[in-house]
Amino acid sequence: FFNVLRGEMSLAGPRAEREKFVVHFQKEIPFYRARLLVKPGISGWAQITQGYASSTFDTGIKLEYDLYYIKHRTIGMDLTILLRTFGTVFGFKGR
User: One MF term from GO for this chain (predicted)?
Assistant: First the structure.
C-alpha cells in the first residue's frame, strides 16, 4: 500500500510482477510488454476475472484481460475491481 502512496503503483491496474517473470514472459508472450505502459496495480481486471495463472499459457490469457483494462479503463471499472477485490479478501463472492 505504501507503493500507492509513493505513486509507484495504482490501486487498480495490471498486477505487478517480479522482474525475472517479466523478462521471461516478454520473450514468450507477444505484446506482454504493453502491460508495462501503465502503473501496476494492487489488483487488476485479470485477477478478478481469471484468478491465478499457473502456466505461460494462462499468463497469456490474463494478458488479454490486462490489455482490455488498459484500453477501456475508467473510474467505474477501477471501482468494480476494488469492490470485487474487497469482496474476495473478506469472504464475499469475488466474481
Answer: phosphotransferase activity, for other substituted phosphate groups
